[in-house]
Amino acid sequence: MPRWNFRRSTASARLMVDFAAERGWSAQQMLRGTGISEPMLASAHAEIEAAQELQMVRNLVALSGDEPALGLLVGSRYRLTTYGIWGYTLLSSRTLGSAIEVALRYLNLTYAFVAITLRLTDEAVELVLDDSEVPADVRRFLFERDGAAMLALGRELLGQADLVQFMRLRVTLPREPQAAERYRQVFFNEPTYGARENVAAFPRAVFDLTLPMANEHTAQHSEALCRHLLETRQTHTGLADAVRDHLLRQPGRMPDMEAVATALCMTSRTLRRRLDDEGVSFRSLLDEVRATLAVEMLREPQLTLDDIAERLGYAEAASFILAFKRWKGVPPSAVRRELGLSARKVRSARSVSRQAPPI
């Protein structure tokens, strides 16, 4: 199974459809043979398989007549907000280096088809883009798209495009004269073509640059959500998995069954019946997600029980406490005692973090 074969949200697919529309190509043309409906594409919570996005890429390449460096144009449009909680985690990281490490740790929460690894030397930070598992007919497009998106995110994180410029860029692709100028526009320099591997290198000092939106508490909490989302995707299958993912994406605004059913392009009755077939209920999935997030949030001394209750969709802390005792058999205060978090430590941490931006 190729490394890129993981489910993803429809945000990337919507971005490509919007790009195609600007070229005069319809959504129907882009979705041909994908099994994706337009209502599904419009849903903020629907998910698709990698193979479905791959077919969309093939449709776009065919519509463009295999335009040189088309992937660079598409990839440059990706923003941190395109990636949901993954992008938010990067934004709140302390340095560009820590953002890169988190990004690669949770790469399966993105839309990347190219495998990306990090190499550090005394003089440079090297990102190796391995496209060997990407189907040959769309390999160039996806290498260009994922590479341009990677660069666009780095520049957005720092807030200044000129801070993220490659010392060198080596690509395995042959040089195409018609694409050369577009490469220079996107990367600010032209790569070395026909290399043994795809490597983007920038100065080692950039790795330690502090990000303008850095916030340690926010970064820790956001990464916890990434971790749970990734673990859920890796350990569950079927419709129940899709429901869990929707609930995990919206702590604080937990959608009801009707909203989740609509996002999954079905009626609530159908959703209930199909979950019954899998031996679970919507209520049990909601409790499972809330319990998982609650335990993680209890590790954060900056969060009071009122904070946690609000972020899990409860009107008051008392309701959350009752629910937690039902899930775990003990009150949340018992869990905090086990973690060594006394009420005094929680109050102290709370006072220190009052200026932190909300999650």
Put simply, the count of helices is 18
Strand content: 5-15%
Biggest sheet architecture:
4 strands, antiparallel
Name the average pLDDT.
86
Shape: globular
**Topology pattern, helix = H, strand = E:** EHHHEHHHHEEHEHEHHHHHHHHH
Helix content: 40-55%
Structural class, from secondary structure content? Answer: alpha+beta
Low-pLDDT windows of residues: 349-359
Say how many strands there are.
6
Ends distance: 36 Å
Oligomer: single chain
Main sheet: strand order: 3-4-6-5
Radius of gyration: 22 Å
What can you tell me about this protein's structure?
The protein is of the alpha+beta class and 359 residues long. The chain has 18 helices and six strands. It has a four-stranded antiparallel beta sheet, with helices on one face. Strand 3 and strand 4 (124-130) form a beta hairpin. It is globular and about 65 Å long. The two termini are 36 Å apart. 35% of the residues are buried. Residues 349-359 have low confidence and may be disordered.
